[in-house]
Amino acid sequence: MASMDGYFGSYVVVVVLLLIGVGIFAGGLFVNRMLRPDRPTPEKLMTYECGVDPVGEGWAQSQIRYYVFTYLYVVFAVDAVFLFPWATVFAAPGFGMTTLAEMFVFLAFIALGILYAWRKRVLAWT
Amino acid sequence: MIQSIDYSAVAVPLILALTAGLVLLLDAFLPARPGGGRLLGVVALGGVAVALAVLVAQAVRGGERRTFCVPPSLGSAASCSFVLDRFTLVFMALVLAAGVVVVLLSMAETSGGRVPVGEWYFLLLGTLTGAVLLAASRDLIMLVVSLELVSLPVFALTAMRRYDGRASEAALKLFLVSVVSTAIMLFGVSLLYGVTGSVHLDRIAAFYASGQSAAPAGVGQGVTTVAIVLVLAGFGFKVAAVPFHFWAADVYQGAPIPVAALLSVISKAAGFAGLVLILTTALASQAAVWAPVVAVIAALTMTAGNVLAMRQRHAVRLLAWSSVAQSGYILAPLAAFAGVPRDAVGASVAYLAFYAAMNLVAFGVVMLVSRARERNDLDDYQGLAFHSPVAALSLAFSLICLAGLPPGLAGLFAKVVVFRAIVDGGLGWLAVVMAVNTVIGLYYYIAWTARLFTPLSTGTHRSGSAPVAVAVGLAVIVTLVFSVAPQVVLSAVG
């Protein structure tokens, strides 16, 4: 197992860092609790919600339609990941027309998803 | 700078992917009419048939084609990510032939109006694309991506029957199991890449063949062992091998029957293709590490599958555990890889092909019966031979094949091939375990077959569906051909 130290050993740094992080956070809270006076009132125990009295429970429902927009965002975000590096090189010597056309083939496939969403009335709010 | 792509080599997955896009567009732009779903089914079927025709043409022309290659200037030798060799062609043929049957079964499923048709065929074609790509993948990244392409649409397909509690439960279970297994496998894959410094299977093989002389400092055999175990565990989930088998019955039962057929044949074939590629191509010289693990997993898988199948009262659940047991038989020859490398892989692939044909017959008939009887218990099959003799004979034939008894020669040949590989590889104990399991399997296959021929008075039976009948017919013909001329498969894989 000694030979494994070099490879897995590098993960020890990650673990130590994690422990230090947890230690600082927990220690701060602990010291705070030790030093402060503790005189709870109902108002103090109430959940803080921007200074307004809290309404409803912790489990709140939100409009399911936002979920679809999240998906559409992911579609755009993913193609942006490929577009940025492509934009820096496609004009460079050695790439040319093929590189330009290939990206549009890719974009056409992405557009298929948007087209589908539009036809299935996902983009309409009402 | 720019890779040249051999489009004729990637034609099969390309056709499937373009058909998927076409189906999605047709669904989005055609006015909604009753019967519009049938057109989409025909388009999907046409796409799979064209892909199959192209595949046959490629097989007839022969020779090995490769594309997406890294030039030798970027490493030791030219390595290709997409290779169309005999192994790939056999797997692609299996997937596409099974795809035809599954599309035909889907036509009956979607005609009920309970599922959105366009999405159904789009996702189905997506899975098929992933499965054919996977067989051709020769690098780790492409393997993982195509395995995901196989898995992701199946969750949605499983959940497609909306407002059905069982289907949603099955989809969620499949999703969680699949995501966890992918995470485990990716960790193994990342370790492999870390050790070998390459994602191409041939370069990984060269690294291990050279005695790991190029390993980074401080990296020992231990890291490779961990990687192998993680990769095995990941694929173990996909092919429902023990101890990662528990999801099979619930998911198969909850999913629509065409999807259960897809899971048990196409998704399983894809899992095995990936497993065989990684183990016997990239990690061939590490067989001493993985072969004993595979042997134990195979023995446990066939035993657990058979024992659990004996207790089932529901047709699809029984087929689910039976397919787990069959996974064990497919895994078993791989354990003998160190002794007889060529025969081991050949036996595994041959068994998979035989299994696919006979299992699809069973699922086809179950689909027919389920249209008349929603519960689909084994008791619903009582007396089937008297009101629909053709269906009953087909099911009886496929069950006897799965059991491996003489009239069903396909199953018998498959088992003989596997036994020979195991015994030649010197794994006598595994052969004994498999023999005992074959006997256990006889019990539930024969019990079900006997039910078909038991007279029963309540004979209300609705007429079947044409596409399903065609699907069963095709699968029966293929199984019969395999029974009469098993050398069709054996020479293709050998």
TrEMBL record, chain A:
Belongs to the complex I subunit 3 family. Its EC number is 7.1.1.-. Its main location: membrane. Gene3D superfamilies: NADH:ubiquinone/plastoquinone oxidoreductase, chain 3 (1.20.58.1610). PANTHER family: NADH-UBIQUINONE OXIDOREDUCTASE CHAIN 3. The keyword Nucleotide-binding does not apply. NDH-1 shuttles electrons from NADH, via FMN and iron-sulfur (Fe-S) centers, to quinones in the respiratory chain. Keywords: Membrane, NAD, Quinone, Transmembrane, Transmembrane helix, Transport. It catalyses: a quinone + NADH + 5 H(+)(in) = a quinol + NAD(+) + 4 H(+)(out). It is a multi-pass membrane protein. One of its GO terms (cellular component) is NADH dehydrogenase complex. The chain crosses the membrane at residues 6-31, 66-87, 99-118. The keyword Transmembrane helix applies. It comes from Planotetraspora silvatica. It is found in: Cell membrane; Membrane. GO terms for molecular function: NADH dehydrogenase (ubiquinone) activity; quinone binding. This is NADH-quinone oxidoreductase subunit. It comes from the Bacteria.
From TrEMBL, chain B:
Its main location: membrane. GO terms for cellular component: endomembrane system; plasma membrane. It catalyses: a quinone + NADH + 5 H(+)(in) = a quinol + NAD(+) + 4 H(+)(out). It is an enzyme of class 7 (translocase). The keyword Transport applies. InterPro entries: NADH-Q_OxRdtase_suN/2 (IPR010096), ND/Mrp_TM (IPR001750). One of its GO terms (biological process) is ATP synthesis coupled electron transport. The keyword Transcription regulation does not apply. Its EC number is 7.1.1.-. One of its GO terms (molecular function) is quinone binding. It is a multi-pass membrane protein. It comes from the Bacteria. Keywords: Cell membrane, Membrane, NAD, Quinone, Translocase, Transmembrane, Transmembrane helix, Transport. The chain crosses the membrane at residues 7-26, 38-60, 90-108, 120-136, 142-160, 172-193, 226-247, 259-283, 289-309, 318-337, 349-369, 390-414, 426-447, 468-489. Residues 137-441 form the NADH:quinone oxidoreductase/Mrp antiporter transmembrane domain. It is found in: Cell membrane; Endomembrane system; Membrane. PANTHER family: NADH DEHYDROGENASE. HAMAP family: NDH1_NuoN_1. Belongs to the complex I subunit 2 family. NDH-1 is composed of 14 different subunits. Subunits NuoA, H, J, K, L, M, N constitute the membrane sector of the complex. NDH-1 shuttles electrons from NADH, via FMN and iron-sulfur (Fe-S) centers, to quinones in the respiratory chain. The immediate electron acceptor for the enzyme in this species is believed to be a menaquinone. Couples the redox reaction to proton translocation (for every two electrons transferred, four hydrogen ions are translocated across the cytoplasmic membrane), and thus conserves the redox energy in a proton gradient. This is NADH-quinone oxidoreductase subunit N. It comes from Planotetraspora silvatica. The lineage of its organism: Bacteria, Bacillati, Actinomycetota, Actinomycetes, Streptosporangiales.
